[in-house]
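Researcher: Next entry in the queue.
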Amino acid sequence: MAFIPAAPFLSPGDNAWQLTAATFVGLQSIPGLAILYGGLVKRKWAVSSALMAVYAFAAVMVVWVLAGFNMGFGHPWLGDLVGIPQPTLSALTEEARASIPLLRGLMPQMAIPQSSLIYFQFVFAAIAPIILAGAVFGRMNLRAWMIFVPAWSLLVYSVNAFMIWGGGWLSQLGVVDYSGGYVIHVAAGISGFVAALVVGPRILKDQRDFKPNNMLLAVAGAGILWLGWNGFNGGDPYFANADAAAAVLNTNLATAVALLAWFLLDMTLNRKLSMVGAINGMICGLVAITPAAGYVDGTGAILVGLLGAGIPWFTMNRLSERWPFRKADDTLGVVHTHFIAGAVGGIMVGLLATPAMLVYVGRGGAGASVTGLFAGNAHQLLVQCLGLLVVTAYSGTMTFGILKAISLVVPLRMSERELEGGDRLIFNEEVFELHHPIPPPDPVEIPTEADGRQAPRAPVMS
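Model: Structure for this entry, 462 residues:
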């Protein structure tokens, strides 16, 4: 039996890590967010919330290979705004050496095949609308969601990816986003807020009583999310180098600090302990370190964790009833845990990025570093703020337009009957009930003299 040698460019170790990292990120969505959401929402919405996540994962996979990948990482189109939409389905494409035009004239050659790169970027694209879904649970029509997800993925996510990661005009200005703080979290957070505003609030009964139906299930989902993030930030150098390891360490350090910070703020200022609060703090730490993981050192990671949790805690706990947050019924507070946390992390890159952290994109790619304000580069802070404004304005405006267009075809909200009945009415399915009520014993019929029947004997106790 003849053995076919691997392509000369391919590094088996780098490729194995890339596929592993991509799988970690995929597990964040399925089952991570599906079961996190299923545990955090009210019992009658557990199935629909999980289904929204599962559907989004599948729908994005299809549109990603048909057009989305090349829109985000292909050849420039429309003045460096987006890549040319075209499929990535040929054998030649899948087995070619991976490369992406990060900057005009810079095409780092990677030691992995293009198929690994396409799949790695797909799981990033898939998680974005799943995050967004957390803002509209409990009222968005599932048929409208089925149309919205592929449209949003192509028209919002892929465009943002190209502008910052694919060599677009924001990247040419110097805006950086290590692993998706702007492209994923800011975009999904502001889009979720806009969607909640357009779709409208939950029914009053759900707004008043939306207690988690299964906290242990939520903790399991949160744990998958946390550890899956190692692939999120550890896979972005596109080979297993020192910066990938540093990014993983910084990710876990910032997340631990953020969880503890949120927990202590809840305990001292709100005078209560909350597992939901701890999960929120964890998510804020993961989100905030994402744009900065490979650009800051350990001290920077601690500061990112502190502010990445502290500022969203304040907006969620002290400003949620004030404008603009009170305008939209954001079911799980996505605008706080993703938009605010992602914005904090992106801006802190402009403050804390240290040139001592060397970032290589692909084996053989040119080494680069990012320098923030505290290391003497005020320009980086300026462009980070510009990138935040552009992604926020574009994502929010385009989301509004997509939803209004869909509303001409399909209602954005469920019917009043569906809003009342939830999963049982919509699917004739419900989340598994862990504690079944014990059925009452059969009634004992006591005979009377009139019916002439013999009285039942007393049970024998053994």
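Model: Residues 275 and 404 are 37 Å apart (CA to CA).
Researcher: Noted, moving on.
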